[in-house]
Write a structure and sequence with these properties.
This is Cbb3-type cytochrome oxidase assembly protein CcoS. It comes from Rugamonas rivuli. It is built from two helices and no strands. With about 50 residues, the protein is an all-alpha fold. The chain has one domain. The longest helix is centred in the first third of the chain and has 26 residues.
Length: about 50
């Protein structure tokens, strides 16, 4: 029972920290373009190197 006095506040703090990290990443524009990097991988750039 005494372990719950430590684990419950610790889990609440962990949830709020995870929410803060998610919303700060969302506000900074981390999730603005989710399709662009996936399409950039498919572009063909097999040009010979300039020598």
């Amino acid at each position: 029972m005494e372990a719950l006095y430590l684990l419950i506040p610790l889990s609440v703090v962990l949830v709020f920290a995870a929410l803060w990290v998610f919303f700060s990443a969302s506000d900074s524009g981390q999730f603005d373009d989710l399709v662009g990097p996936a399409l950039r991988v498919l572009q063909d750039d097999d040009k010979p190197p300039l020598e």
